[in-house]
Write a structure and sequence with these properties.
The chain is an all-alpha fold. Helices cover about 60% and strands about 0% of the residues.
């Protein structure tokens, strides 16, 4: 499966690609772990992408992108949950919310 096919199948909003938030390292991990049927719970893969970033101590710019991506995600409850983790990140400041 190609990176593009995986992104489409897992319902990643196009901004993940436009904002360069799906690096090859992350995609290799996710595609390797894919099994047919995972698309039925695609929020798990998107959630994993968010947490992959959060484990890497993202910059303020990356946190701003991640925050915006939570609002674009097709699963609003998951997006809300991820926002709570973003707010706990080391580089988080309240002005990220305004961007």
């Amino acid at each position: 499966m190609t990176k593009h096919e995986f992104i489409k199948l897992m319902l990643f909003p196009k901004e993940w690609v436009e904002w360069d938030m799906l690096p090859d390292e992350l995609m290799e991990i996710q595609i390797k772990g894919y099994e047919p049927g995972h698309e039925d719970a695609s929020e798990h893969d998107r959630n994993g992408a968010f947490h992959w970033w959060l484990k890497r101590n993202p910059t303020k710019e990356q946190l701003t992108k991640l925050l915006k991506l939570t609002y674009l995600d097709p699963d609003p409850l998951m997006g809300k949950d991820i926002r709570s983790y973003i707010r706990k990140s080391n580089n988080y400041t309240s002005d990220i919310e305004a961007n």
